[in-house]
UniProtKB/TrEMBL annotation, chain A:
Residues 4-234 form the ABC transporter domain. It comes from Sinisalibacter aestuarii. The lineage of its organism: Bacteria, Pseudomonadati, Pseudomonadota, Alphaproteobacteria, Rhodobacterales. One of its GO terms (molecular function) is ATP binding. It comes from the Bacteria. This is ABC transporter ATP-binding protein. It holds the Pfam family TOBE_2. NCBIfam families: PRK11650.1. SMART domains: AAA. InterPro entries: AAA+_ATPase, ABC_transporter-like_ATP-bd, ABC_transporter-like_CS, ABC_transpr_MalK-like, ABC_transpr_MalK/UgpC-like, Mo/tungstate-bd_C_term_dom, NA-bd_OB-fold, P-loop_NTPase.
From TrEMBL, chain B:
Residues 72-262 form the ABC transmembrane type-1 domain. Keywords: Cell membrane, Membrane, Transmembrane, Transmembrane helix, Transport. It is found in: Cell membrane. This is Binding-protein-dependent transport systems inner membrane component. PROSITE patterns: ABC_TM1. It comes from the Bacteria. It is a multi-pass membrane protein. Belongs to the binding-protein-dependent transport system permease family. The chain crosses the membrane at residues 12-35, 76-98, 110-129, 141-163, 184-209, 241-262. It comes from Sinisalibacter aestuarii. InterPro entries: BP-dep_ABC_trans_perm, MetI-like, MetI-like_sf.
Length: 362, 276
């Protein structure tokens, strides 16, 4: 069942069109993550779902009902703001139950519900504290609690982790995922952090410049990016992208050349496919190899030892390349090395940056 | 070590001396007034001034017997009416100005500020003619309304600055919680803005309580405020210094009480923890 449906939503601020016709559906209980660079319009879309902004055109449906003009308070939506937006003069319990108070729920029932939700979020000791007396992580949980209390049709998260430190961010990320499994309500989550998108989403909606570029499961987007933008946005470290030129073509096999490199042989989906203009290889499909086995030679700029792996940054004639190597790999800045690719898993892009080849699930 | 300690002693001595001078500069007139209020008429004007004398409190009893209570009542009515009207009109206006955007809001803000730029004399005569026309001359409401023309723009500007510092996320969170705009103002904004509301209340009250010129022009007999009543005592035939001093001393009390009560709401750090 479709929980939330957006139909050709458009929005301009003055002469600037920030949302250029976005359509999308979230299934009941689905965890959808809107991800994209800052300024791509993802927060604006979220705020339009919440009713805090009005679309210039297009429709918003909750289930089968049109909600485009319904005021925010009547949408039964729980929203967690990036800034938490807790009421500073109210206790944690009061903060969480304002919606119930406005709905006329008696005080004892409000307290009961606050205790219930607080237990779920491990806030039961803090119910009578003021927001100023809480840590960042605790405030975040209160903000989530406030959203849960009213038993909303959907949760909206607007970059909820960006004010937390790295360790807390991972912890809260897991907690939100756990919460989603527990209450199984539709969640729409906005972030610019591709790691959050990859780890939490049932489905990612990748936005750029007010448009949906691609949507699908995290692995679909990671393995089969529709274009260069998606390919380089998802994945950390970023995909290596090198300019190439086809030197010869024999049906679906093409010989590609790149600056300072020997030829690379790739397979194209059909004989009619346009010549690839760039090739993308993820760091995990890139290796530092013995001389003669590689495609390119380069100089190591730095080696980041992460414990579980080593990220080797190499400067080559074709550009900078990152290779993910096993933890015991020994590399020193200044060393001359050879770089090899797992060509079978390379992504090929045409002159417009659109993907030429698709990869089956591996 | 001793040099350091010595320096610190001189420093604190210097500071103490400076503060004593500053404090006596402020307090001396009040002390003089208090002393004058418990002297006889001749004693109050004696040269050189007497510092040892038999205190005489009859001036204070004369406040009651010579009809000054009415002036106190009028002043209080005007000041409190003005505070209430300023708040009732100023708070929603300031809130609307900060939360709604557009050309109208910009122009309205400037127009409000420009009211403060006009010299007082530019409004007195029109106000006089207006109030005479509608028969409000020499009534407390006329003075309160005249004060409102000055205190309302000032209050709006002070509140606008404060409301602007309250993150708009709080409004939106409350709207999502199901609040109407008025409920947002009542449940979220006003409790947070309590320190500023108290400050505005104090400033408006003290302005109204002390204001002379408008009260002087717009009243003649029935609605005389304390400052006007005191001024009218300085007649050509007699100069009742102890009574003037006693009224002045007593006139400080309501303002002090009001400030004392309102000040308790001025606590800093209330806004902490709303948004990170």
């Amino acid at each position: 069942m479709v929980a939330i449906r957006l139909q050709d939503i458009r929005k301009s601020y003055g002469p600037v069109e920030v949302i250029k016709g976005v359509s999308f559906e979230a299934e009941q209980g689905e965890f959808v993550v809107f991800v994209g660079p800052s300024g791509c319009g993802k927060s604006t879309i979220l705020r339009m779902i919440a009713g805090l902004e009005k679309p210039d055109s297009g429709e918003i449906y909750f289930g089968d009902d049109r909600y485009t003009d319904v005021p925010p308070g009547k949408r039964e939506i729980g929203m967690v703001f990036q800034s938490y937006a807790l009421y500073p003069h109210m206790s944690v319990a009061d903060n969480m139950t304002v919606s119930l108070r406005l709905a006329g729920v008696p005080k004892t029932d409000r307290r009961k519900r606050a205790v219930e939700v607080a237990r779920m979020l491990k806030l039961d000791e803090l119910l009578d504290r003021k927001p100023a007396e809480l840590s960042g992580g605790q405030r975040q949980r209160v903000a989530i609690g406030r959203a849960i209390v009213r038993d909303p049709k959907a949760f909206l998260f607007d970059e909820p982790l960006s004010n937390l430190d790295a360790a807390l961010r991972v912890e809260t990320r897991l907690e939100i995922s756990r919460l989603h499994q527990q209450i199984n309500t539709t969640m729409i989550y906005v972030t610019h952090d591709q790691t959050e998108a990859m780890t939490m989403a049932d489905r990612i909606v990748l936005l750029d410049a007010g448009q949906v570029v691609q949507q699908g499961t995290p692995l679909e987007l990671y393995r089969n990016p529709a274009n260069l933008f998606v390919a380089t946005f998802l994945g950390s470290p970023k995909m290596n992208v090198l300019d190439v030129a086809a030197v010869s073509r024999d049906g679906t096999t093409a010989q590609l050349t790149m600056a300072g490199a020997s030829h690379v042989s790739v397979t194209l989906p059909s004989p009619e496919t346009a010549d690839p203009k760039s090739i993308g290889v993820r760091p995990e499909d890139t290796r530092i190899v013995p001389e003669g086995e590689g495609v390119l030679s380069g100089t190591i700029i730095s080696a980041e030892h992460l414990g579980s792996e080593v990220l080797v940054h190499t400067e080559t004639a074709a550009g900078q390349i990152i290779a993910k190597m096993p933890p015991d790999f020994s590399a020193h800045a200044g060393d001359t090395v050879w770089v090899g690719f797992n060509v079978a898993r390379a992504h090929l892009f045409d002159a417009d940056g659109l993907t030429i080849n698709n990869h089956a699930r591996q | 070590m001793s040099g350091y300690a010595g320096q610190s002693i001189w420093k604190s001595l210097g500071r103490a001396a400076f503060l004593s001078v500053a404090v006596s500069f402020v307090l001396f007139p009040i002390l003089w007034l208090a002393l004058g209020s418990v002297k006889t008429r001749n004693g109050a004007l004696a040269v050189p001034p007497e510092f040892i004398f038999q205190p005489d409190f009859t001036a204070y009893t004369r406040i009651f017997t010579q009809g000054f209570l009415g002036s106190f009542q009028t002043s209080l009515t005007i000041a409190l009416t003005n505070v209430v009207l300023t708040m009732v009109l100023g708070v929603p206006a300031a809130y609307a100005l900060t939360r709604m955007t557009g050309k109208v809001q910009e122009n309205l803000s400037f127009w409000l500020l420009s009211v403060r730029m006009a010299p007082l004399f530019a409004v007195i005569i029109p106000l006089y003619v207006l109030f005479r026309g509608i028969g409000l001359l020499d009534t407390p409401i006329a003075v309160a309304l005249a004060h409102l023309t000055l205190t309302l723009p000032m209050a709006i500007w002070m509140l606008v600055t404060y409301f602007r510092s309250i993150p708009i996320d709080l409004d939106q969170a409350a709207l999502l919680d199901g609040a109407t705009r008025l409920q947002v103002l009542w449940i979220v904004i006003l409790p947070i803005a309590r320190p500023m509301l108290a400050s505005v209340g104090i400033i408006v009250f003290i302005f109204s309580w002390n204001e002379f010129l408008l009260a002087f022009i717009l009243t003649s007999r029935d609605a005389q405020t304390v400052p006007v009543a005191v001024a009218s005592m300085a007649g050509t035939m007699s100069f009742d210094w102890p009574l003037i001093a006693a009224v002045s001393i007593v006139s400080m009390i309501p303002a002090l009480l009001f400030v004392g009560v309102a000040q308790r709401h001025i606590v800093s750090g209330l806004g902490a923890g709303a948004v990170k």
